[in-house]
Design a protein that fits this description.
The structure is a single chain. By secondary structure, this protein is mainly alpha-helical. The protein has one domain (13-47). 65% of the residues lie in helices and 0% in strands. The longest helix has 18 residues, at 30-47.
Length: 48
């Protein structure tokens, strides 16, 4: 079991479906897809 904190986020249905599709295409869980994309966005922002 991971010790990472949990966070509840409400998103529009369209975004939820998109994340689900992207996660499947990338063979990730939806959680892993969201974490990956947030990490990438953070890296881009820090590089700017």
């Amino acid at each position: 079991m991971r010790a990472d904190p949990q966070m509840v986020v409400r998103v529009p249905e369209e975004l939820k479906v998109w994340i689900k599709v992207q996660a499947a295409l990338n063979r990730r869980s939806q959680n892993a897809e969201i974490v990956y994309r947030l990490e990438q966005a953070k890296k881009l922002e820090e590089a700017a």
